[in-house]
Amino acid sequence: MNLDNEETQETQEPTNSVSTPEGLDAIKAQLEEEQKAKVAAEAALAEKDARIVELEASLSEAKQGSETVAAELVQVKGAHAQAVGKYLDAVKAANPTIPPDIIAGTTIEEIDVSVEKAQSIATAVKASLEAQAKEARVPAGAPTRESINVEGLSPREKIAVGIQQKQGGTS
Known about the structure:
Elements: H1 2-12, H2 21-94, H3 108-135, H4 155-167
């Protein structure tokens, strides 16, 4: 058994051998590098945590600013709608010859375009009515009296015309 024991010790010695001072120095150097890497990683992690806190604060400020701007936008849109409504009322009042229903729009540009179209329509209608009025012009006063043409009338019709003229009526 001694023999077996010695053989086992010899085979185990190289695997369980005591480290040499050079090996210990290498292990210590490797351990120091790992500790330095660990410290550097912890520092980088702390830096990143600080950056995350900073970014979260910036994000919070941005959200508050966005909410403020959104509220201001709602107020501006309301004021714009009121201004456009007042402009529409003013344009309708300034153009009494145009029916108010024709002037419409939700923006100032749309209202201006509708006024231009309405004015061109009103101008065309006015020109058309003036042309019709010239064609159907009736002279002022009573029409001139003309003598009644009795030619071609029968004797009885001539007598009837004569009686009407004596009575003051003409036909």
